[in-house]
Specification:
Elements lengths: L18 E4 L2 H6 L6 E6 L21 H18 E10 L4 E2 L6 E2 L2 H11 L3 E9 L16 E8 L5 H7 L7 E3 L15 H8 L8 E4 L6 H13 L4 E5 L3 H10 L8 E3 L31 E8 L2 H13 L2 H4 E11 L4 H8 L6 E11 L2 E10 L34 E4 L6 E11 L5 E8 L4 E5 L11 E3 L35 E3 L7 E2 L33 H7 L3 E6 L5 H14 L4 H6 L8 H5 L11 H10 L4 H8 L1 E6 L13 E2 L3 H11 L2
Parallel strand pairs: 1-10, 1-11, 2-3, 2-9, 6-8, 9-10, 12-13, 14-25, 16-23
Antiparallel strand pairs: 3-7, 4-5, 6-7, 13-15, 14-15, 16-17, 17-18, 18-19, 19-22, 20-21, 23-24
Helix pairs in contact: 2-3, 3-10, 5-6
Length: 675
């Protein structure tokens, strides 16, 4: 190197202000002196999460394997910069891999950590950062993400961290620290308190701390806080590629406007290849076992590594795939948090399985993982009963809708073949909380309909089903996997069009045509045009999971939805039985529809995530061709409108993927979640 970092360091290594390096991370780290750092703490951009707007940025790679390769190479150089006792704290979040079917949890942080370990790093510990004020989520087929891992890497067994935990009798590697809001236009900020906790783990008071992905300067701000409270003399070196964030750091940390910024040219590098091996679905074809689909769910929590290894082998190469019901769930746990075991489980994603959650279970002063795993069958639903394990809101008070006048609010209907839009022109009645109950909508097709509003649990009562022969109410009205019998007369259900369960409703709820209304009501613009918050100029990718951010820039409106919750596969089977009764093939049925329906009709008969339900106008024609029972037509046509806004669910909060239970409570919780 032509110049040295030591040129900027005082002789006593006591920096009055941080060293700011405006450069790509690889060039910045190479600029540092070997064996010069006591600690590195950082949170690199998460893969596929945000666009930071500059060439060569980390996190926008096409494949997560490329992301892992880049970071491993960068961190391999970083290891040489640490002092012999130095520690590297790496905070990195996971990502769901979008795909056709149920999205896999990528397990990206753990794959990176294992790759780094294989290339010379020691994984000293994995700290869990639990966020008590985590972002809420409405997802109902997995647990809400409420934590992130912090990997503790060392270059030697004897290090600051290992020495520190020896002095602590009840040291816990779980940190409960709230997210910290900031006014700065940087959407990936970890809290100062988190960094203060990490830097208080046995480091010298005059430590030099590096943050190679400095962002908005949280690490420097935390160091300033510690120095002020404890009269320490810690100092920081900050590497940041985006000059706009350098400006934020200067403002946030009250740095001198004249502070010199070291600017370095981009430095290219050759990466080490990260290779994952898996047989994907090829092994499934060899299953011939008679015990097919005998288990609805499996719960296995092992105490030792060998038992876990053998079970994972059985999942990859044995008969467990065939034993488990297609809608079944496996809860697989190991009572330690070794990186080798976590990585072993992560490889199941390559063998026909889908990891949906890594649950963190608090165990005295440490933790262990349990994985929610389902089959990669492209099925839309599996046996997760989220409603059975929801958590009550601390504040159960209802919203005050008296402040809003819903006249003129937009209504969007995507159930019909062609998207329709309209707006509310009259409110006929209200719920007790003043949310509209029944309204009249004027559509852009010049028609008017009377619609019912779904709100806070109202209309949740589902339909009931009874045996077509003895009229006994059925405990289970549909099961795609197994033969279903009436619990009273033992009639085989879903055997033909005559053995389909009878559907009954408390009331028929479907749109009613309404007369034209003479009114001066006009459609309202309910987008937040006066929004001035930090997300105002951000791309959608930069909103992350923040419902507040999305609400602040998106329009509020009502959406047309089906009221009743029923499996789409049931309608596919109904159409199949009706087709058989009409003695038609799928091709013959398709020919009775316009050419544009060439692929649409086939999707009505699919029972995976590629399936779709007939639109109301399609049902009119299907009813003329097939012997479809009226009650099922009503089931499909029964609809409501629902306000699209971020708010509390009346059912309670989704449980997070961090759990504090006794062993008995844990098993009860897991069993209840698949009941």
């Amino acid at each position: 190197m032509n110049s040295k970092l030591t040129d900027y360091l005082p002789k006593d290594n006591n920096l009055k202000e941080p060293i700011l390096i405006n450069a790509d991370v690889f060039a910045g780290i190479n600029y540092l002196e070997d064996n010069s750092l006591d600690c590195v703490v950082t949170s690199p951009p998460y893969w596929g999460q945000r666009d930071y707007g500059f060439k060569g940025q980390i996190g926008n790679e096409n494949q997560y394997s490329q992301y892992i390769e880049k970071l491993e190479k960068i961190f391999s150089i970083l290891k040489d910069k640490l002092k012999p006792k130095g520690i590297f704290f790496l905070n990195i979040g996971d990502k769901y891999l979008s795909r056709y079917g149920n999205s896999r949890l990528g397990m990206i942080p753990y794959k990176l950590a294992k790759f780094m370990q294989d290339n010379g790093w020691m994984v000293q510990d994995i700290i869990i950062w639990y966020k008590p004020n985590h972002m809420p989520s409405s997802v109902n087929n997995r647990f809400t993400s409420v934590y992130e891992p912090i990997f503790v890497f060392a270059k030697n067994k004897n290090n600051y961290y290992s020495e520190y935990i020896k002095t602590k009798k009840n040291f816990s590697n779980i940190l409960k620290i709230r997210l910290q809001p900031t006014p700065y236009n940087h959407v990936a900020v970890y809290p100062e308190k988190l960094i203060e906790e990490l830097l208080s783990m046995g480091f010298p008071q005059d430590s030099i701390v590096l943050d190679p992905f400095a962002g908005s300067g949280t690490t420097e701000k935390a160091i300033q806080n510690l120095n002020q409270i404890y009269k320490w003399k810690m100092s920081s070196i900050l590497i940041e590629a985006n000059i706009d964030y350098i400006k934020i750091i200067k403002e946030r940390c009250s740095l001198s406007p004249e502070l010199k910024i070291i600017k370095l040219p981009f430095k290219d590098y050759v990466i080490n290849k990260f290779i994952e091996n898996g047989n994907n679905h090829n092994f499934i074809d060899s299953f011939k076992d008679k015990q097919k689909y005998s288990e609805k769910n499996i719960i296995k929590i092992f105490n030792n590594d060998i038992d876990l290894l053998n079970f994972v082998k059985e999942m990859k190469f044995g008969n467990i795939y065939n034993v488990l019901n297609n809608h079944g769930i496996i809860y697989l746990g190991i009572k330690n948090n070794k990186i080798e075991n976590i990585h072993l489980v992560s490889t199941l994603n390559l063998y026909g399985w889908v990891i949906r959650n890594q649950l963190i279970i608090k165990d005295k002063h440490s933790w262990y993982p349990i994985y929610l795993i389902v089959k990669d069958t492209k099925k839309g639903k599996y046996n997760l009963n989220m409603d059975a394990v929801r958590i009550k809101h601390k504040d159960e008070s209802d919203e005050d809708w008296n402040k809003l006048n819903f006249l003129g609010y937009k209504v969007i209907n995507t159930l019909d073949k062609e998207r329709k839009e309209g707006f509310i022109v009259k409110i006929l009645s209200n719920y007790k909380e003043n949310m509209p109950q029944r309204v009249i909508i004027k559509w852009n097709t010049n028609g008017y309909t009377e619609e019912i509003v779904r709100y806070n649990g109202y209309l949740d009562e589902s339909f009931s089903a009874s045996c077509p022969k003895c009229k006994e109410v059925l405990l289970n009205y549909y099961d795609e996997e197994s033969e279903l019998l009436c619990n009273n007369c033992k009639t085989k259900l879903w055997n033909d069009i005559y053995s389909i369960p009878l559907i009954e409703f408390k009331e028929d709820i479907y749109p009613k045509k309404s007369n034209e209304i003479k009114t001066n009501v006009e459609i309202k613009d309910t987008s937040n045009q006066n929004y001035k918050g930090k997300f105002i100029n951000e791309k959608t990718i930069n909103f992350g999971a923040s419902p507040g951010a999305r609400t602040s820039v998106n329009e509020i409106y009502f959406a047309v939805q089906r009221i009743y919750d029923f499996p789409q596969e049931m309608i596919a089977d109904l159409l199949g039985l009706a087709l058989k009764k009409a003695k038609l093939s799928k091709n013959e049925l398709t020919e009775l529809f316009p050419k544009t329906y060439k692929h649409t009709v086939g999707h009505w008969f699919r029972k995976d995530l590629g399936g779709s339900l007939p639109a109301p106008e399609d049902l009119i024609k299907l009813k003329k061709i097939l012997p479809l029972p009226d009650n099922y037509i009503n089931l499909l046509n029964s609809r409501c409108i629902k306000l699209q806004i971020v708010k509390k669910s009346h059912k309670g909060k989704n449980p997070g993927d961090y759990l504090e239970f006794s062993e008995n409570e844990l098993f009860s919780f897991l069993k209840k979640s698949v009941s």
